[in-house]
Write a structure and sequence with these properties.
alpha/beta; seven-stranded parallel beta sheet; 16 helices
Length: 344
């Protein structure tokens, strides 16, 4: 792994507060950038772009060239693990991902235990290209989806408003659902280790749908699988820097931090600042938590919201980010306004 002592982003994850917080944006390589749209049109389908190392590296680097963020995140998708497990995964224009649903125990029995990581070689090749092109002071983030969130798509076969199909299956058939989770844990560990070997400086585990779970189920299906992934990665790379993003976890965040051992948590824009400062940021770095809609709004509202994030969290270890991914309709001028405000 490359030396990261000059990377401000990694310094925060290592326990060192920065006077000006390092910053990046979730989904920063995306449709709000005209240069991304141009490459996406050239690539064809979404997965075609993910699995073309040169083009995936190019779109990963685009927001770094344009904005000078402190970290790049490799362009890929959380559903590449089901794809490598031999499941059908496709992306329909305007409709999101489509998978063959694993919605009963008989179908779960058909799930392969081990992914074909040869299918994911383009992701590792893209990481190597980006690592070679990045300024040594810019960090490179690898990622995976948390088992709970990936399983919600695998069970339903598509995204749903509240992930009821997966929640119902976890209640009705907990053993079968556990089998999906176990396969995802084991293969996510190997996937993340391969990303570190390819040049990633840090990792993020996206649990986008953690917030739909009640506390007992959150502990079982979100916290425990994430803990096992962190433990499995650190068994091979003891100093691996890992960020968790259990979106919507709210009051359950301290327990998540305690149990998983992550170096930082990403918080959404609904997080209560005093609670986060006292119960979370006192123990790990926090990342967030600007509302992506105020970034679309711009103007005085954006300035106030940026100032609020800094007032709430910049006295401690903070990585400035959004509370979720940047929206496609976001004006580039507003991103520039945000960066100026953060960096002063």
């Amino acid at each position: 792994m490359p030396q990261s002592s000059t990377k401000r982003f990694i310094d925060v994850l290592s326990g060192q507060r920065q006077t000006v917080p390092p910053m990046w944006m979730m989904r920063q390589a995306g449709r709000y950038l005209p240069e991304y749209r141009e490459v996406r049109a050239k690539a064809g389908g979404f997965l075609d772009l993910c699995f073309n190392p040169e083009l995936a590296a190019e779109v990963t680097l685009q927001p770094i060239r344009r904005f000078g963020f402190d970290a790049a995140i490799i362009f890929s998708d959380i559903l590449v693990i089901p794809y490598a497990l031999g499941r059908e995964v496709r992306f329909e224009a305007g409709e999101g991902p489509r998978l063959e649903p694993l919605d009963d125990p008989a179908k779960v029995a058909t799930l392969a235990p081990r992914a074909d990581f040869g299918k994911l070689k383009p992701v590792f090749d893209a990481l190597k290209i980006v690592r070679g092109a990045l300024d040594p002071r810019t960090a490179l983030i690898g990622f995976c989806g948390a088992p709970w969130t990936v399983a919600t798509y695998m069970v339903a076969g598509h995204g749903t408003p509240d992930q009821a199909p997966a929640r119902m299956m976890a209640y009705r058939h907990p053993e079968a659902f556990s089998q999906i989770i176990d396969v995802l844990v084991d293969n996510s560990i190997q996937y993340l280790l391969a990303q570190l070997a390819a040049g990633a400086d840090a990792l993020q585990i996206f649990d986008t749908w953690a917030g739909v779970l009640p506390p007992t189920e959150f502990a079982r299906w979100s916290v425990e699988p994430t803990r096992r992934i962190v433990e499995g990665v650190r068994a091979k790379v003891p100093d691996a820097k890992i960020i968790g993003f259990p979106r919507g976890a709210g009051a359950l965040l301290p327990a998540y931090v305690e149990a998983t051992g992550v170096n930082a948590v990403s918080i959404d824009w609904t997080a209560e600042p005093a609670f986060i400062r006292e119960r979370v940021q006192s123990r790990v770095a926090v990342q967030g938590n600007l509302d992506p809609l105020v970034l679309i709004t711009g103007g005085a509202a954006l300035d106030r919201s940026v100032d609020d994030v800094l007032a709430n969290f910049a006295a401690g270890r903070l990585i400035f980010n959004l509370g979720h991914g940047i929206q496609p309709e976001t004006p580039i001028a507003h991103v520039e306004q945000m960066i100026r405000r953060v960096r002063g």
